[in-house]
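If I may wish for something, please walk me through the protein I am sending here so I can picture the backbone:
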Amino acid sequence: MTFSPVVPPVLLIAVAVAAIVLRLTTMRQLARSAGQRWTTVWRWSALTLAVVLMLIAAARPAVGGDAEQSVTTGSDGDTTANVFLIVDTSAESAIAEIRDDVAALIAHYPQARFALITFAARSSVEWPLSEDNWSLKPVVAAVAPDTAGAEVNAAAAANVLRYQLIAAGQRSPDAPNLVFYFGSGAPGSQAPQGEFDPVPGSVDGGAVFGYGATRDTSRLRAIADQLGVPFVARDTAQAVTEAAPDVDGVSAAQAGATASDRTDLYWFFTMVAAVLLLFEIYLTLREFRTSRAARRDEVV
């Protein structure tokens, strides 16, 4: 079993210690009060277990990580590739083709971490950098065009990408960062166009994919130069993975063949915690109704 915490491990441990101290303090206060002791103990235990399960879920336990570790990491540190997907959701972009290409890249790098950033006039992080590629697939399938009608900035995701790359470098300094841009280059847009300015050396590969007959090729080439990756005019007759670079000299297909898929288990812990919390909410509401009925009887 392997773990990939959603927050830095030190912060997660600090939160866990604080939660345990608070629960122990609550138990001490309950022990001093009168009432149904065993009922109190059971409810305290169930709620405490729910808190513990949520903390375990935040650590993102998974099975299949040992095989993955032997392929994607070495003795110097984590070298699992970080793949950043920047998707143009403006009305001019070919969303259906882009969704298919994104799905193909996810399958091409089965052991990588992925982040999904969409943009039109503004950018949004739809999926933070994560190894949970199984849950990412329905998010990609749900990507839809922006119907706001605002003028498009082809580099709207520049700042978001820059800071995402910085965070990824701090978390896994030995991991390569691949950036794939999918868009039409905001053809005909009158909005001021920004520029991508990643930290030098933070982008290790990727591509800028251009879509549509009306795409602004010169603008897309400029974005490719800013990112330090090649520009590729998309042709559905060719697989998008032909432009996908190998990671550390090992093709993603070979990596997928030698490593077992990571299966996240956080959903199981959150599901059990949710059941326990719902049970506690039910008991609390029942006590509230009982106390209200008792007060009403006293008034009468």
Summary: The chain has two domains: 2-63+263-299, 78-258. The radius of gyration is 25 Å.
